[in-house]
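S.,

Sequence below, as promised.
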Amino acid sequence: MTPLILSAPETSTPTPSARTPSRKPRSSFGKTQRKRLSRTLDHYLKTRSGSVTVAVTDLAADRAAFAYNTKLRPVTASTVKVDIVIALLLKAQREHRALTATERALAEKAIKYSDNAATTELWHRIGSGSGLAAAGRKLGLRHTRPGPGDYWGSTVTSATDRLRVLAALSTGRGPLSARNRKYLLSLMMNVTPTQAWGVSAAAGRGDRVALKNGWLPREADGGLWTINSIGRVRGGGHDLLIAVMSSRNASMSDGVATVEHVAELVAAAIKGTSAQDG
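The prediction came back faster than expected:
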């Protein structure tokens, strides 16, 4: 599969002299490795309910990226709360101001505790679906369509678009200021412990994790569950952006187990380590 290439993370390291050019480590994660990982995921997902799409990239390694089942377009569920807070921050930037105390309180509730009432209030403050769409254009999103009315959790997206959102938070080449990127990532690094599942399964000892999850039983899917997790995992010489999106899971616990194991598999492959398959 063609790797998804994202911009490099900001660094405060002084620019080296011309005699010692700075380069990312070259990745050995090429076509053969992507095919092998696709087969591994195919094998595992045959044993699971639902459908999964995943995208991952390592900002610390050149061209270390992978995407799977990219035509699947799940709904965001609560992962869209990251987009909504980004839209709020972009609005504040346009108005040349910081967030108000009320806006900060709402953003904290939406991200750290996944509070739906706070999110709906923010949804209205950004201009609902039209405001989200405008922010999406700033972020370079290609497959994201806001949910109707106040059904922000029914926003349709792709795993690769979720990675673009994460890249906007993790690199210096997006529309957000450094201060606002740091602020939102700090909220994602401090989600309440009961909501810290998902891509955190890919973290090693001492890794730093920033994430947002989404979970939703959908009437349109006969009550089956959408389970999503997006986030950044840093440590051990790696800086992974991971998005695992799934739909039509038999239960929430079943979907969480699937998402976590897929996150483990793709992270292990990108890192060049091994993970138990099954």
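The CA atoms of residues 144 and 157 lie 4 Å apart.

Coffee later?
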